[in-house]
Each structure stands twice: as C-alpha cells, then as structure tokens.
Specification:
Elements lengths: L2 H30 L4 H8 L3 H29 L4 H27 L2
Length: 109
C-alpha cells in the first residue's frame, strides 16, 4: 500500500474516534431524554459548532472510506491501482457530497 495513503487513513481514523464518541454520547443523551427529531433539529439549526463538527466528520469519513475502498478493490478485484483509485475517488466524492448535504439539511436554518 502507498505509505502516504496509509498515513492518511490512520490520521482520519484518529480524527474520527473522538467525533464518533461525541456523536454516540449525543445520541444516548437524546434518546434517554426523549428528544424528538423536531427537538434535535431545533437545537442544531443555525449552529455553526454542530455544522463544523459534522462537516469534519463527513470529510474524515469520506477520505477514510475512499482509501479503504481503493485497497479492497486492488486486493479483491481485477482492477489495477489506477482504475481502483479513480473509482475510490469518485466514491469518496459522492460520500462527501451526500454527507455535506445531510449536514446542511440538519444545520442550515
């Protein structure tokens, strides 16, 4: 595996660990306190902090997943590194676009 991609995947994993922990804590808090989707959206709408938090999450997850997909394609499919890289880049770009749309839907007023 390309050392640069290896480092990027490990770095994005390190970024995602605390983000996942906070996300899970928020989910537990919301469910234990009976918050509805309307309640949650009322708290996230217009919040720059939540927008930045979830945008960072989406960017890290998109990079991390696309590198993993590239590695899987190279190891398990007949695709060569170049074509696997193209597919993985498209996949990561799609994840990024859809994830940022979801963040916008939850955060923008």
């Amino acid at each position: 595996m390309n050392v640069r991609l290896y480092v990027w995947q490990r770095a994005t994993a390190a970024v995602m660990v605390p983000l996942i922990a906070v996300h899970l804590a928020v989910i537990f808090y919301a469910t234990r306190n009976g918050l509805t989707a309307v309640d949650i959206l009322g708290r996230t709408r217009g919040s720059i902090a939540w927008g930045l938090f979830y945008s960072a999450f989406v960017v890290a997850a998109s990079i991390h997943a696309s590198i993993g997909v590239r590695t899987i394609l190279i190891e398990w499919s007949p695709l060569r590194a170049g074509n696997a890289g193209i597919f993985a880049t498209l996949f990561g770009s799609l994840l990024l676009a859809l994830g940022l749309l979801a963040v916008a839907a939850v955060v923008l007023p």
